[in-house]
Amino acid sequence: GRASPPLAALSQVLRLERSRRTAIVFPLQKLERYLAPGTDTAPFRLFQPGLATLQRAEALFRSDRGHPIDYVSSAVRMDHAPPPALPEVCFIGRSNVGKSSLIRALFSLAPEVEVRVSKTPGHTKKMNFFKVGKYFTLVDMPGYGYRAPQDFVEMVEAYLQERHNLKRTFLLVDGVVGLQKTDHIAVEMLEEFGIPYVMVLTKIDRASRGLLLKNVLEIQEFVKENTQGCFPQLFLVSSVEFSGVHLLRCFVAHVTGNLPTVEAS
Ligand code: GDP
């Protein structure tokens, strides 16, 4: 198999000096010191596991013979989806938001896992199912665009409404450009279905600190004022630098019921 990229594992991150380490493991926390006094940072720290918990979650994402992590199958219709046997999470977002890069980063400690991309125009968009041992499944939903064909919208809607083992939906938003019109359509759909979701800001290595702060505060405010089902803490990630990837693995492990408790750190 391929070698894991640097910083894919916590053990590598722990060798960095302290402030760099914080920036990688808790990217939101890194931003805190640049906020105006009085800014509400409570939503920054709702999910803040300690090292032992982060390591336990990482072990789930590391494959070995007794713990295979595999691509299972693709489906274009719900009746082609694998049986809903395990707790499941799904990842949705606009085309080009960085979804395949993020899923590749999450699975970088299982280099045999192939995250397929089907971007060719006209190529059928599919839901791709991955199985993480006997613990959970992760679904890569097709990217939506402003010209998403109706059958695609119906597939995503049917999945979100009918999938009873779905524990959480991860809505990816570009951290450089913030919420776009199509993201609002996705939010409205998730709100209408009343299912729990969380927003993940991607490509944070590309945004200046000022721009990232602006986008974080705006989206956080939007979530507070306009949503019921969205977790108030945003997750910031860079699939290039691996920032936020370890924390996101931990949150996935948590929402799929695979961490006994998450202690405060
Ligand atoms: P998808 O269509 O949502 O699956 O998006 P991709 O994962 O293919 O990413 C779209 C583009 O953004 C590609 O050129 C990636 O290299 C780039 N990209 C994705 N994630 C990141 C990131 O975290 N940082 C940077 N700098 N670029 C990224």
UniProtKB/TrEMBL annotation:
Source taxon at top rank: Eukaryota
A GO molecular function held by the record: GTP binding
Gene3D superfamilies (alphabetical): P-loop containing nucleotide triphosphate hydrolases
- Which NCBIfam families does this one have? GTPase_YsxC
Q: Name one GO cellular component term.
A: mitochondrion
Q: Which family does it belong to?
A: Belongs to the TRAFAC class TrmE-Era-EngA-EngB-Septin-like GTPase superfamily. EngB GTPase family.
Q: Native species of this protein?
A: Molothrus ater
What is the gene called?
Gtpbp8
Name of protein: GTP-binding protein 8
InterPro entries annotated for this entry?
EngB_GTPase (IPR052279), G_ENGB_dom (IPR030393), GTP-bd (IPR006073), GTP-bd_ribosome_bio_YsxC (IPR019987), P-loop_NTPase (IPR027417)
Q: Which residues cross the membrane?
A: none
Q: Which Pfam families match?
A: MMR_HSR1
Q: Which CDD domains match?
A: YihA_EngB (cd01876)
Matches recorded under PROSITE patterns: G_ENGB
Keywords on record: GTP-binding, Magnesium, Metal-binding, Nucleotide-binding
Enumerate the cofactors the protein uses.
Mg(2+)
Residues in EngB-type G domain copies? 85-258
